[in-house]
Design a protein that fits this description.
The chain is an alpha+beta fold. It is built from eight helices and 20 strands. The chain has two domains: about 120 residues, no CATH class; about 190 residues, Rossmann fold (3-Layer(aba) Sandwich). This is Serine kinase.
């Protein structure tokens, strides 16, 4: 209750910027350039973002992942020493406390960790996926471990005529015997090597992320092409590093289930917040509804263009 009163008082005295992420209204005291401006008139169930002093401890804490992360079902406390602390409460309040860093240099920690914690506190499980549009209203999702080539593959698919839907995260749900996805926010993140393997963005569009930490990782905005609506998912392709040749195979429902478990975003929160049943039910619904594929690209070979082309011929064109 105290947090709600303080939030209302703060809103009355401070300029508020309104955005949307994962289809949720974000009301913020600070500029959040990676997010999309809101398109809804409702301010119910918003997530409120402010700068301030975060609590030193939380109540009823679950076993900590490490000394920099502790959380319960209703509170989340995260820190990068000497850079930023993030506190999330009840899926509705996020407090950012910075130290020796410029806010713009550490906002990615909020976009990734803070927003994910707020989703979990709301009972929503995000997935570690990128995605492209197969047509105006339907999408193909792409999932993989970090560094495997998920975003680069999505960029290469864009170059072949499939516009970006989301990068890195999305939330999924089943409705009317179909699976739907809602994108996170309009920013693509690429390592320098991935940037060199694409032709969609040029050097002038680079936005440096995590200064002095991930100095060769950059963000690229696509606000004009971003959709805040949910879209039907026609399929999902998981990417792994293979041997000498490109391989694409259809996965069984059991294999899809395991892959979705592995690609749950910030999945340590599932167990810590006792959401295993929610996760299993959602993943089972997805695995039983849409086709899924394993695409393996050769190790130590620059085959992204050919790899994306094979995904187009063996997956994209068959789904629409």
């Amino acid at each position: 209750m105290l947090n709600q009163i303080n939030t209302r008082n703060s809103m009355a005295q401070t300029k508020i910027y309104e955005y949307s992420a994962f289809g949720i209204l974000i009301q913020s005291e600070i500029l959040l350039p990676a997010l999309s401006k809101k398109t809804t008139d409702s301010d119910q169930n918003a997530i409120y973002i402010k700068i301030g002093k975060v609590p030193e401890n939380i109540k009823n804490e679950a076993p900590s992942l490490n000394k920099n992360i502790c959380f319960s079902k209703t509170e989340f406390l995260f820190q990068v020493p000497e850079k930023i602390k993030i506190y999330v409460s009840n899926g509705s309040l996020v407090i950012l406390e910075t130290f020796n860093s410029r806010l713009d240099d550490v906002l990615l920690y909020f976009y990734s960790n803070g927003l994910a914690a707020a989703l979990y506190q709301r009972g929503v499980i995000p997935f570690h996926v990128s995605g492209v549009f197969l047509n105006k209203n339907k999408v193909l999702l792409i999932a993989a471990k970090s560094g495997t080539g998920k975003s680069t593959t999505a960029i290469n698919l864009q170059e072949k005529g499939y516009p970006v839907f989301t990068d890195d995260t999305a939330i999924l749900h089943k409705k009317d015997n179909k699976v739907f996805a809602t994108a996170s926010y309009p920013m693509i993140r690429l390592w320098q090597k991935s940037f060199e393997n694409q032709n969609l963005f040029d050097h002038n569009q680079k936005q440096r992320l995590l200064q002095d930490v991930e100095f060769n990782k950059y963000g690229f905005s696509f606000h004009n092409d971003f959709s805040q609506k949910e879209h039907e998912v026609l399929g999902i392709v998981f990417i792994e590093i293979g041997e000498e040749d490109i391989e694409i195979n259809t996965l069984s429902k059991i294999e899809v289930t395991q892959q979705l478990i592995n690609n749950t975003y910030r999945k340590y929160l599932v167990k810590g917040m006792q959401m295993e049943e929610t996760q299993f039910r959602l993943i089972s619904e997805i695995a039983n509804t849409i086709p899924a594929y394993m695409a393996k690209r050769p190790i130590n070979k620059e085959t992204f263009g050919t790899f994306a082309g094979q995904i187009v011929s063996e997956i994209c064109k068959k789904l629409v």
